[in-house]
Amino acid sequence: MLKIFALAIVATALAAPQPDLKAAESCDASKCKLPDCRCASTNPPEGLDLDQIPQFVLLTFDDAVQIANYDIYTDLFFNKTNPDGCPVQATFFLSHEYTDYTKVHDLYVNKQEIALHSITHQALTDYWKNLTLDGLQAEFGDEKTLITHFANIPEDAFKGMRIPFLQLSGDNSFEFAKSLGLTYDCSWPTQTFRKPGLWPYTLDYRSNQDCPIGPCPESSIPGVWVVPMIDWTDKSNNVCSMVDACVDIPDDDADKLLQWFIDNFNVQYQGNKAPFGFYIHAAYFNVNPVRLEAYKKFVDYLQTLKDVFLVSPSKAIEWIKNPVPIGSGDWPACPDVEDLGCTKQTCELMKEDDPNPRYMTFCGTECPAVYPWLGNPLGDQ
Q: pTM of the full predicted structure?
């Protein structure tokens, strides 16, 4: 039944604009004003001088959180602070399968951001391209329900989402993000606005961002923030949105790889200080141990720079809404999280159309009837 439900979503999906949306007009800066609206622009917010502006660094990981990578994350990010005294943050765009939800709970209570990346992580890009609002609800809205329940974290913890393979569905994914109460989407690469970089902006008006993986939104969707994924370049000057998609890289030497990281970082840091994204999948470090060594050195290097802040996209947007000079008394407060507790449970569960049992670790005392999946996020019978 669930398989039929999933296929029905694909078969009926259309990326056409919803009838209640209107076509986006050119941005009128006299009407589009912070904190609620910002035109797509490479200009820093509110005309602040560059030496007053923080360089935000967005460290994100896609896919499952498991015991093996959790230990890496704790070593990289726990017990470290930004220049404002707030915790260093990474963002985890979580997919469901093979995730240990007790580790998700621990990441959240240690001030890391948990974001949505779908239940199924379906491998067909056309599936994501053509998802209706109902399909997005099944993948992302129900994933919010799933994580809230099994990681035992508050419903209001979720601020952002990323579509698998960065495959947008036109207006739909952004309209859905708004309906779910999310602040931002971080799925939209830009090759054109790399130097200078494109700052986060809202979709109240037409975007001038290039659309390398369409379809991109064409309607006015007020209040939804786009966090542009500013492309990196590899040693052959090929562009890549996810760092683990870069091909020609110095992967044989940690110091050379570190310098390549720094070179890409400096495009923004020595430019207009648009937020710099380091976007990878959870398996990035498994391919070559040199990568983890270089990444650790990069985090250490960033912490020597007093105007650099390792934050979540939602924290960066919070500052953009009310941009103040570094050190100002109106600087955004540190993340405040509620620890709802977590009793660890591991259950052997069956998944539809799969004869092999799955083992799921989560916060709770009772096992679901079946493995939670599309159309059944709580694993009810």
A: 0.94
